[in-house]
Write a structure and sequence with these properties.
The chain has about 120 residues and is an all-alpha fold. It has helices spanning about 1-10, 35-45, 55-70, 80-95.
């Protein structure tokens, strides 16, 4: 109620069909790729970071598989693609994916392999 009063006092208006009230959770940005070229751009942008993201090949597989289709009719952004994108995005913005080792302390070199890829 306080927020609405402030909006009114500021002379601002709201578009009611874009408003959500009394929600405990709100998904405010959904990215959906409709063209193969856009998915290729996304994958190419992440190529540098793949070595810093554990299980990158496995996570990115739905996106990579999507780019293998040559015809537009078989191109469909699925829930698996969305999950892949969300997971990669979270890994990129999460706790440091790139950091210098502390040479004064022991550290573990961890390798990962699967049927889909190595990382």
């Amino acid at each position: 109620e306080l927020v609405l009063q402030q909006i009114q006092q500021s002379g601002l208006t709201l578009k009611i069909d874009k408003c959500h009230f009394c929600k405990t959770q709100l998904k405010y940005l959904v990215i959906s790729f409709r063209k193969k070229e856009l998915v290729l751009i996304l994958i190419n942008k992440m190529l540098y970071y793949r070595r810093f993201i554990k299980s990158y090949a496995t996570i990115a597989e739905p996106l990579i598989a999507l780019t293998r289709h040559s015809d537009l009719k078989s191109f469909q952004w699925s829930e698996a693609c969305q999950n892949s994108f969300e997971t990669l995005r979270q890994r990129l913005i999460g706790a440091p994916i790139i950091s210098y080792p502390r040479l004064d302390q022991p550290f573990i070199l961890q390798l990962d392999a699967s049927d889909v890829g190595l990382s």
